[in-house]
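OP here, attaching both records as promised.
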Amino acid sequence: MDWSFEPQNESDAFLVSGRLLNMKANSINPFLSPNLRAEAKGAVEELYFTFSGDEVSASGDMKMKYRDFKFVILQKDRTGVNKLLTAIGNIFTNDGSNADPKGYRYGTIYAQRDPTKSFFNYLWQNVKEGVISTLTGNGEKD
C-alpha cells in the first residue's frame, strides 16, 4: 500500500493506492469475523485500489480478479452460520465468473469518515466499500 499526504495540509488530503496478490480469502477471516460477522471463501488472485480524500470523505476505484468468492454471514454470537442471510447475500455476490475478458471486475469506492474513529478505520471503510461494490455491482469499468 502507498499512502501519500502533506502533513501541513489543513484539509488532511491524502491519496492511497494498493494491491493484493494471490490471497486465499479465508486468510482474512480472523479480521472479518469480529468486524463484519462474516467469513470469506475462495481466492483473490489480484486486487488493486486507489482512492483519495480528506477529513470528511474519500472516493476512488477498485478492480479484482477472483475465483469462487463467497461470504458466509455468522450468527450474532459468531458460533454458527446464519444460513438465511448467507443465502440472500450470495444471491447478490458475483462469484467472479462474470468478469471482463482479462478476468477483472470493477467497483467504486466512497466512504465518509467517522471522526470518532481512527484514520486506519477510515482506510478500512474505503477498502470495504470497494470490495462490496466490486462483488455486488455490475462489475463493469466506468
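Record two, same layout:
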Amino acid sequence: MAWFPMFIQLEGARALLIGGGKTALGKAQRLEPYGVTLHVVAPEILPALAALPHVSVRAQRVFCPEDLEEDFLFVIAATDDREANHRVSQLCHEKRIPVNVVDTPEDCSFLFPALVRRGPLSIGISTGGASPSGARRLKDDIDRMLPSGIGDILTWLDTTRPAIKARVSSEAQRKTVFDLLYSRCVALGRPLTEAELQALLEDFR
C-alpha cells in the first residue's frame, strides 16, 4: 500500500534520536535544515553527530522506556540492533508517538523520503519501502529536471506577495500576475529585478 505524503512544520519541535552511529548521523543531517532539535540517546555517539548545531546529547547510554516520557514530536530508532529498534517501535505505537525505524518499514509509522530541497522547495519521493534505490534514482531524475535557480526564485516570489496583493485588487488578476512572474523568472533562471517587476505590473493597475 502507498504511503500518504504529508508535509509538517518542524521549526522549534523536539524529537528523540536513538542511536549514535553513521545511520543516525545521516538522519540528523537530513533534518538539519528544518529547525527540529534532536535529543540523542546512545552508548556511543559520533563526534560529527554531537557537533551538529541542532543536536543535543540527552544521554550516553542505551535507550530506556522512560526516555519516551518527554514531549517529543517523533522518534527515530537508528541503532544497529534490530531487536532494540523493534522494541522502540512497539513502545512508540503504544504511546501513539510517530516513529521511524531504519531499514524496517513495517516498524515505521512514518518514512523518510528521498528528498530534493532547493530553498523553500521540498520534494519527497517514497516507494513505500519497496525500492529505496528506485526512490534515489527518481530523486536524481527530478533534481535534473528542476528549473535553474528555483530556490532563489521561490524565495523571491514569496517576498513579492504582500506588495502584489496590495496593488492588484482582483483575485483573478493576482493569479495571472503570479503565473507570469513565475514563468518569467523560470525563463530567466533568476528572480526579476525591481525594474523588470514594475514593468510587468504596468498592465495591472
